[in-house]
Amino acid sequence: MKTIIERMDKVLKIFLFVILFVMVATVAANVFGRFLLGISIQWGEEVAKILLTYLTFFGAAYAMKDNSHYSFDFIVQKMPQSIKPFFQVLRWVIIIMISLLLLYWSAEVTLKIRHWIMPSTGISRSLVYIATPAGMILLLVYSINNLINEVKSIARP
User: Please, where are the H alpha helices in the chain?
Assistant: First the structure.
């Protein structure tokens, strides 16, 4: 399982880098063309929005890997040491449940809008919306892995 997660980390990191690079290049080219040449890339804004959507959901999954999402843990930190592990596990269970709900609903929406076409690129809006269920799958993998690690750390004396 660990090697699968490590490979997934590498692929996801490269994917995020490529998305960010292409998004910055597209926006920069569009700004350059618009302000210096007086022309605009017709599909540039649409592609940048698509890439930003992917960057958001895949980046959220990558942040889950390191447990680097912002959280308020003040109450848990003030609890007695004996019950902290329960709430740490409960946190991962809640994250997994919410992620499963988001996966279900986002997949449902993605399927329902598959016939909607984006005007500039001529592609289905499902290509944009599929970033959410795909990101939720990755987020679930990382969350389940974090839950397993949390339970293992509690079980160790």
Answer: 2-32, 44-65, 74-78, 84-112, 126-129, 131-155
